[in-house]
Amino acid sequence: MKDYPWIWSTWVKTPYIREEHKEWLIASACLPIVAPHIFEGLSKDRAILLACPEREPPTHYGKIASMIRSCQPEKIVVATIEGSPHCFTLHASVNEAEYILGERVNRDHYVILDGKELKRIDTRAVRVARYLHLVDRLLKENPTVLEELASYSLEHKKASTCWKPRIIEERQ
Question: For residues 142 and 119, what is the distance between their CA atoms, to the nearest angstrom?
Fold first, then answer.
């Protein structure tokens, strides 16, 4: 597998993103391994910047904001693995970078389902996902989404079918 630059290891004004490529792909570091065919399609004619919030500090937004300010990309595409709480922070970081800059950033958000299917995500969905009370209300209004969640989330399946309540014994 080819070595691609990582956000944390890339100079904010590197010619790679300032001059050579006006569109960027910010992708989960595992994406080239999990879904190489999808990664290849998304990376065509774009600067590739990998990130792994599980391995690196999850505060990419400041670095991304500096990169955007310094290089003025025409478009940013964010692509991560669906269901990863770590990967979600890449989407939120690009939104936060836009907020920090106080200007619109042309961007697309995608997630990869089960390593096979590419799904485009509305930028507003990324913003809503940060507010759990709103997600909670949406679940209460549409509880059938939990059935769909069960088809993707091993954690949800386990929590809703197998886990038994923990009994804490009193110490005497």
Answer: 20
Instruction: Specify whether 38 is located in the same domain as 117.
Output: yes
Asked if residues 45 and 21 have their Cβ atoms less than 8 Å apart, the reply is: yes
In the three-class reduction of DSSP (H, G, I as helix; E, B as strand; rest coil), residue 28 is classed as strand
CA distance 108 to 79: 8
DSSP class per residue in 82-145: TT-HHHHHHHHHHHHHHHHHTS---EEEEEEETTTEEEEE-HHHHHHHT-HHHHHHHHHH-TTH
Series of mean pLDDT values for 10-residue runs along the chain (172 residues): 86 92 96 96 96 84 94 97 91 94 95 95 94 93 88 74 61 52
H or E segment to which residue 49 belongs:
strand 47-51
R_g over Cα of the chain: 19
For residue 147, give its domain range.
131-163
